[in-house]
């Protein structure tokens, strides 16, 4: 999507994304929580199942320059301490460079990377072994309990998925150069376009609306088989849905071959 600078594709999805962005602006959050994956950019040799960024920047990608994120460091520390006390051995990371998994939703939905204070919460969705879906849900619920105690308007975002198989993530190699990554993506793009699974995506979106935990857990734990290696990012949807604690509705779905991804949006009914 970021490479589609002429905005030639995904018109239906882009239109709904713009409507959601308007809703977010009207909500005017004080703080944004972003559950995101990592494409083996920030975490390679050491890969935490769950982490909280105390300070962070954005990598230069898709024509965007590198930039810092306005991380709510004090609140991030309080959240980390809360989760540790709640039984989560969560990693605290500092000066971590995050990629489009965090930058894109902040730009496309949250009004920009510096629109308000942010707490990035990386979830390992790329490098096996991955956290179990039930544990991801428990993390989201715990974050929600922490947010209940804040006197603030909080936007919660889960970003990633739906069905897609990025060629670079299909490699077992955990540490490749940016040049090698670009080559693998370029050579595998044509095949990746054929790996979108619309029926599977729509089943997941229905389970999100119904908050059918059994189906969500089963689909997420078996995401690679059902929707490709990139579908492991469903974990971020589960965490965000559990943290938000509200019913969700699917507002858009469009398989976009040129982006190699089934593009979907689900938002809080209260939004």
UniProtKB/TrEMBL annotation:
Residues 18-257 form the Extradiol ring-cleavage dioxygenase class III enzyme subunit B domain. Keywords: Dioxygenase, Oxidoreductase. It holds the Pfam family LigB. GO terms for molecular function: 3-carboxyethylcatechol 2,3-dioxygenase activity; ferrous iron binding. Its EC number is 1.13.11.16. The keyword Transcription does not apply. It comes from the Bacteria. NCBIfam families: PRK13370.1-3 (NF009909). This is 2,3-dihydroxyphenylpropionate 1,2-dioxygenase.
